[in-house]
Amino acid sequence: MTERPNVPVLKTDLDPQEPPKTA
Questions:
Q1: For residue 19, what is the DSSP state?
Q2: How distant, in Å, are the alpha carbons of 11, 16 from that of 6?
Q3: Of 12, 3, 1, nearest to 23 (Cα)?
Q4: Distance between CA 18 and CA 11 in Å, rounded?
């Protein structure tokens, strides 16, 4: 789950350029 911009996961630490989906 590293390149999953459409997955409701903790992308805050993975993709700092994208808004947190979990927030």
A1: -
A2: 10, 15
A3: 12
A4: 7
pLDDT digits (tens, 9 = 90+) for 1-23: 566 666 666 555 556 666 666 55
Which residues, at least 6 apart from 6, have a Cβ–Cβ distance to it below 8 Å? none
Instruction: Specify the pLDDT at position 15.
Output: 60
Q: What is the pLDDT of residue 13?
A: 59
Per-residue model confidence (pLDDT) at position 19: 65
- Residue 13 amino acid letter: D
- Compute CA distances 21 → 4, 13, whole Å: 11, 11
